[in-house]
Amino acid sequence: MAGLTVAALGVVGFLGYQAAATAPDHPTQARPGSHASQSKEKDKDRGRQKKKSTALPAASGTGERVVYALDDKRVWLVGADGKATRTFEVGPSPASPDPGTYAVTSRNEGGVGSDGVQVEHVVVFHSEGGVVFGFSAAVDGSMPDPNARKRTGAVRESRADGSALWEFAEVGTKVVVIP
């Protein structure tokens, strides 16, 4: 019986060692030029790119508008003077509108999103092929699943950002979607 206990402890210890060595919060030293080293360099590059994305893109139109950058997953609220008053990250859904200029067509204080989630501050700016594109904030703070099979046009932001967009974007406000 003691032999089985010792063997079991040995297996548990080995499995714990393997888990600790491969866990993301226990990084291992990477040799220069190794795959892990290259991955870290790519992560650093992504971080640099992300910092750049907070600046209002030059080719995003003029005047008062909402700018939605698909690749950056970011929105800017731009005043009449052409200066961004707020920017924030968003969570896109499986469907995205084509780049172009749209206008807010409707607003709704709350309801259920096309993905079945309770939402507030819904600002709709386009519909195409049965998909309605708009900004909203999930009451529970969740973001849409970009890999979901159902094509929805929900662009989700935090509740605070949703409130700011709601105050900014009245019906008729320009929405510029860029790649």
Automatic annotation (TrEMBL):
Residues 1-19 form the signal peptide. Keywords: Signal. Residues 23-61 are annotated as: Disordered. The keyword Signal applies. It comes from the Bacteria. This is L,D-transpeptidase. The lineage of its organism: Bacteria, Bacillati, Actinomycetota, Actinomycetes, Kitasatosporales.
